[in-house]
Specification:
heterodimer, A: about 300 residues, alpha+beta, five-stranded mixed sheet, five-stranded antiparallel sheet, 17 strands, about 35% helix, about 25% strand, B: about 650 residues, 5 domains, twelve-stranded mixed sheet, 17 helices, 34 strands, about 30% helix
Chain lengths: ~300, ~650
């Protein structure tokens, strides 16, 4: 299982650079027919969303592996094995589940990366986690979702920057749902230099440019422009965002770990399925979509 | 570890020095799979270890230094650490330049952490000291057929000559080397041909100290000076300070092939203390690891920077930091032990797959020379991914050592033997791989294939110098020997959880402490115990609140003057245990004392709200009768508490 080996390697290192990650993926990919940049991105999103590693931590080009943990999925007695993993920890976990006669399911998401989920009562899972030496996260995605930085807080704390000179500039149009060349009246601006560095600046109401990470930047611009990008279907528990506005990393992780399923792309949308109402409420609140927030509105 | 790095790796025709410096100690730790320490940390660590042995075995025993003799002559001599520390004392003698040579012994005593006993450190005796050197020499000869450099003469400083013989260059001269490397165009971390180093050192003899000059002019010591300088160069990260006090590090070129297209990036070294980002407006170098900044891809417009050089500088905390890419017309690229693909070098390597990037205007001259050394046709490519005005010769495998013509000096062919690790999943240490993901190890340079052994067994080396994968794939520490020219430890280990893994947020043991989302307005959250309340003034954007108690009701604004109260639920815990506890009137109200104000506020908030007959809602859609009953029960309790508080106040 080549991506299990990758995760094993990332767990042993704890952290590393983006270049190191790419080298490792190159090494394991061999001669793939898939565009290699797509493999990097797809795998990175999956490892991040499923709680295995955090990429671009604090705006750096660094990744950091999470500690191994069993995380409870929302509204169920199912726990998913997330965070880092090594061969020996995985073997110990499987042995413990057999010993406690806990139903365990192992499938692959994507091919080559095992997804391990276990059914059981909290007390038994507590014992398993203790014996294996990993963390048990009983509140799971609820805890993650309630701790995400709100878009408003990110915008308020973002540094004011001058717009870069001699960089190519594009502006985001919510009407066209696309980038347009040059400096339009738009709120969100992307600056590119020749060497592939991109910066995202959001123009605030008083004309300042504030620099944010790309995913936060588009939601900050939407907040300022009064555009609502995320929707939650309470009946079907589907959380949706446009494909051009993926959720900020911590948000996406909370949405995915609510159900243990990765996001699906289709029809121009990214869909997170089986998201609990409480997780959705926290995420919508953090995105600044108060009107859609379940809860205390009277 | 020390024996491996100093005595059993490279040799000068079988002769070796116990040449120890803080840089070498740090490198030895890394090679041995220990943690990466800075040279000064490695020095302190080593000094502490030797001190401990010296105190316990030498000072505390009547036999003194003789206790360091080895019990078994098959093992690495036990005195090796002590001898190495005695060499370090000599290495550090530069501050004693104006003093007599006897100042060596107080310095050794300092390192050993002991007092002087007459002219020598406590426990030291010259006769045994000399014998310990003899024991080391004999062990090297018997087991590895290597000769330890022993001073020829034995004058009045007979004992002192042993450590001095192993310190060709002292610290004062080592510190001048970055300037020497820079002025002669050496590349950081890249081994240099010894004859070139010798030539350049002799041409620059004036920059070194008196002791350094003496060492360079001594034909017996010169080979060792050169080896020491070569070692320093291999561990030099390119850092230097220029005359203005700016800190300067080097930019290398990294060539990688993706989908058969050549991609060239600049990779800048990041010496200790350099900022995480260097941004001059046009170029941005960001670092997310030790030692290197992230690669910056070159495009067609960057030919100018390669030809005329590039300096990217920015200020950080009052200091100027510069990343420097040297101007060049022709750039050899060779395999690197840190990157896949090829890295810019100062020479080509014999029998090794290299590449050459050169200006288009020079391609005919370069092609002519490369065809001569490779013994076959070479083709220049000019992908769209290459900088404009430059061409690339890939698959250059020099088969013969021929001096390059004038102008192509950087295309010298180097033939010294070395190992290049490539591929697989390597761990932080250069020679350690993850079990199940072993890479390839290739021998480059000139060597006798029949002398290659893995774990003591003869190994069949591939035509391209690749070591066989089988013996190296098992989870263990392996040793590769190439005659007495080179010895390298290679480890394959099982993965473990790094302490650097990111911890998850600690979870509250009570899920009821999940935060609450409050819309705009003034709210009071109340718990089931008198005193448990929290006023919240939520802005237009609402508020996310984490009360330190189980909030069971939220009393808040509404569209009408009656206000609203909301029955709170924790959606996560839906079992019957969670909601709603009765009001807990804990303890005797007389003892409320300090809490009285909070208790009164709690009761007032509930009472005043209930008097207005508020609209009642539930976050989880509980039946309205049940919710109403609960609210009324709470209101009655609050009324009772309010009375008690009033009584106590009288």
């Amino acid at each position: 299982m080549k991506w299990d080996i990758l995760l094993n390697w990332m767990t042993h290192l704890g952290w590393g650079s983006w270049a190191l990650y790419r080298q490792a993926v190159d090494e394991l990919c061999g001669d793939t027919e898939e565009e290699i940049e797509t493999v990097y991105r797809r795998l990175r999103v999956l490892l991040s969303d499923m709680g295995h590693a955090d990429f671009f931590e604090n705006g750096t080009m660094r990744w950091r592996t999470f500690q191994p943990a069993l995380m409870r999925l929302s509204d169920s007695n199912c726990y998913i094995f997330t965070g880092g993993r090594t061969r020996s920890i995985t073997e110990r976990l499987i042995a413990q589940c057999k010993e406690y006669k806990l139903p365990m399911q192992i499938d692959e998401l994507p091919p080559g990366l095992s997804r391990i989920s276990i059914q059981g009562e909290r007390e038994l899972l507590d014992a398993v986690a203790h014996n294996v030496g990993i963390t048990l996260l009983h509140s799971g995605a609820v805890s993650l979702a309630s701790r995400v930085d709100t878009v408003r807080a990110q915008l308020d704390s973002a540094p004011v920057r001058p717009s870069p000179t001699n960089w190519e500039e594009r502006s985001w149009s919510f009407d066209l749902r696309n980038w347009v060349d040059g400096d339009s009246e738009s709120t969100l601006h992307e600056f590119n230099n020749r060497h592939g560095t991109r910066r995202y600046l959001v123009r605030t109401r008083n004309g300042d440019y504030k620099e944010l990470e790309k995913r936060f930047a588009i939601y900050a611009a939407a907040l300022l422009d009064g555009v609502e990008l995320a929707t939650f279907d309470e009946q079907q528990h589907l959380f949706k965002v446009p494909v051009w506005a993926p959720l900020p990393i911590d948000y996406a992780r909370a949405a995915c770990l609510s159900s243990g399923n990765p996001a699906q792309m289709g029809n121009g949308e990214i869909t997170y399925s089986e998201v609990s109402g409480q997780v959705a409420a926290y995420l919508l609140f953090a995105l600044g979509l108060n009107k859609k927030t379940q809860g205390l509105a009277t | 570890m020390l024996a491996q790095t100093c005595l059993l790796s490279a040799s000068n025709q079988g002769t070796v020095l116990l040449n120890v410096t803080p840089t070498i100690l740090a490198a030895a730790l890394v090679d041995a799979g220990e943690s990466a320490l800075s040279p000064s940390e490695a020095m302190d660590d080593f000094m502490r270890a030797v001190r401990e042995v010296y105190w316990h075995r030498v000072i505390g025993d009547s036999r003194k230094l003789a206790t360091l003799y080895s019990a078994n002559n098959a093992d690495v001599p036990f005195a090796l650490g002590f001898l190495a520390l005695s060499v370090l004392a000599a290495y550090d003698m530069h501050t004693d330049e104006e003093r007599s040579a006897n100042a060596y012994y107080p310095r050794l005593a300092d390192l050993l952490g002991c007092q002087m006993d007459g002219s020598y450190p406590a426990g030291f005796d010259g006769f045994t000291y000399r014998a310990l050197w003899g024991e080391l020499a004999q062990w090297l000869k018997e087991h590895y057929n290597r000769t330890l450099a022993i001073p020829h003469s034995a004058g009045m400083y007979a004992y002192l000559e042993f450590p001095l013989a192993h310190v060709p260059f002292r610290q004062i001269d080592i510190e001048k080397l970055p300037l020497f490397f820079e002025s002669h165009g050496y590349e950081p971390g890249i081994p240099a041909a010894l004859d070139r180093l010798a030539h350049d050192l002799l041409a620059s003899v004036e920059i070194f100290s008196r002791a350094g000059k003496k060492a360079l002019r001594d034909s017996d010591r010169l080979p060792f000076v050169i080896r020491q300088v070569a070692h320093e160069l291999e561990h030099w990260d390119g850092y230097r300070e220029d005359r203005s006090g700016a800190r300067v590090a080097s930019i290398e070129l990294w060539l990688d092939f993706r989908r058969r297209r050549a991609e060239i990036s600049m990779v800048a070294r990041r010496p200790e203390g350099f900022p995480t980002q260097i941004n001059d407006g046009e170029f941005v170098f960001v670092s997310s690891q030790e030692r290197w900044y992230e690669p910056v891809l070159l495009d067609q417009g960057d030919g100018y920077h390669l030809e005329y050089g590039l300096r990217v500088s920015s200020w950080d905390e009052g200091r100027n930091y510069i990343l420097n890419c040297r101007a060049a017309n022709v750039i050899p690229l060779t395999p690197s032990d840190e990157f896949s693909g090829l890295i810019s070098d100062h020479a080509l390597r014999e029998n090794t797959k290299c590449a050459v990037l050169c200006k288009s205007s020079m391609q005919d001259t370069v092609r002519g020379f490369l065809e001569q050394v490779c013994g076959r046709q070479v083709i220049a490519r000019s992908d769209q991914t290459l900088p404009e005005g430059w061409v690339l010769f890939a698959d250059v495998i020099p088969k013969s050592v021929i001096d390059p013509p004038s102008g192509l000096e950087r295309l010298r062919i180097e033939s010294s033997v070395t190992l290049i690790p490539q591929g697989g999943l390597r761990l932080k240490r250069r020679w350690t791989w993850l079990s199940g993901a072993m890479g390839r190890v290739t021998i480059v340079g000139t060597y006798d294939a029949s002398t290659v052994r893995i774990d003591g067994e003869a190994a069949v080396v591939g035509e391209d110098g690749t070591l066989p994968a089988g013996p190296l794939s098992t989870t263990a520490d392996h040793t590769v020997d190439i005659g007495n020219q080179l010895r390298q430890r290679i480890s394959v280990v099982e993965g473990q959880v790094s302490p650097d893994c990111k911890p998850w947020h600690a979870e509250s043991s009570r899920s009821s402490n999940d935060p609450l989302i409050l819309p705009r307005g003034h709210w009071v959250l109340v718990g089931s115990r008198p005193g448990q309340h929290l006023y919240v003034d939520a802005s237009d954007h609402g508020a996310l609140v984490r009360p330190q108690f189980n909030a069971v009701w939220a009393i808040g604004p509404s569209n009408n003057t009656a206000g609203a109260v909301v029955h709170l639920h924790d959606n996560f815990e839906r079992d019957e245990r969670s909601y709603h506890p009765q009001v807990e009137l804990r303890g005797n109200p007389k003892h409320w004392r300090g809490d009285k104000l909070n208790v009164r506020r709690w009761a007032e908030a509930i009472y005043q709200s209930s008097m207005r007959r508020p609209k009642i809602a539930c976050t989880n859609g509980c039946p309205s009768e049940q919710v109403l009953d609960e609210w009324k029960s709470l209101a009655r309790s609050a009324q009772g508490v309010k009375r008690q508080v009033r009584k106590l106040s009288r």
